[in-house]
Design a protein that fits this description.
This protein is mostly helical. It is 73% helix and 0% strand. The chain is built from seven helices and no strands. Helix 6 runs antiparallel to helix 7. GO terms for molecular function: ATPase activator activity; protein-folding chaperone binding.
């Protein structure tokens, strides 16, 4: 890899558990240092490099602050190329996905704000549970399939959480 490791940019060891406040503070600090405005009087090459560093830093930050993207990235660092989106060969989870989608649709139809809030809390608890499970198994080669399955589940719940936020915004209007 020609590009620096996302963790190295933030002077962190590759790990699933990340202090998000510390990450955000470090991001702001580094972003100021490479901000293209600081290179307004520099030559064209320095300006281009500053833009490139700012883009790399932003990409690294977006990946590391998102649990599913961080999980995907960590698994990739172990030398396994994984498509970001893949079919989930996980019948039990597919059934759970369908039930969650139906429940969210029902909440949308009834415009039930209290129900949406409760759904959101359950979703957050499920996300934290998956993250804890992933943190325990991602480095264990024997549990590689489980780590990938957990990462796919995290991706789904993350997408569902975005849909819940959009529903809340629509119901608040």
């Amino acid at each position: 890899m020609g590009r620096p490791c996302h963790f190295a940019l933030f002077e962190l060891q590759p790990a699933f558990t990340v202090d998000l406040q510390q990450l955000a503070a470090r991001y702001r600090e580094l972003a100021r240092a490479v901000h293209p405005d600081r290179f307004a009087d520099a030559g064209e090459r320095e300006q281009r490099l500053a833009l490139q560093r700012a883009a790399e830093l932003n990409e690294a930050y977006q990946v590391l602050k998102s649990a599913p993207r961080r999980a995907h990235y960590l698994l990739g660092l172990q030398g396994h190329e994984l498509p970001m989106e893949a079919t989930v060969q996980d019948p039990q989870f597919l059934l759970q996905q369908m039930e969650l989608r139906e429940e969210l649709e029902s909440l949308h139809e009834t415009a039930d704000l209290a129900g949406v809030a409760a759904f959101k809390q359950r979703l957050k608890a499920a996300q934290l549970h998956l993250e804890e499970q992933f943190a325990h198994c991602w480095q264990d080669a024997a549990q590689r399939d489980m780590a990938e399955r957990l990462m796919r589940r995290m991706q789904f719940l993350d997408k569902l959480a975005r849909e819940v936020r959009q529903l809340e915004e629509r119901l608040d209007d």
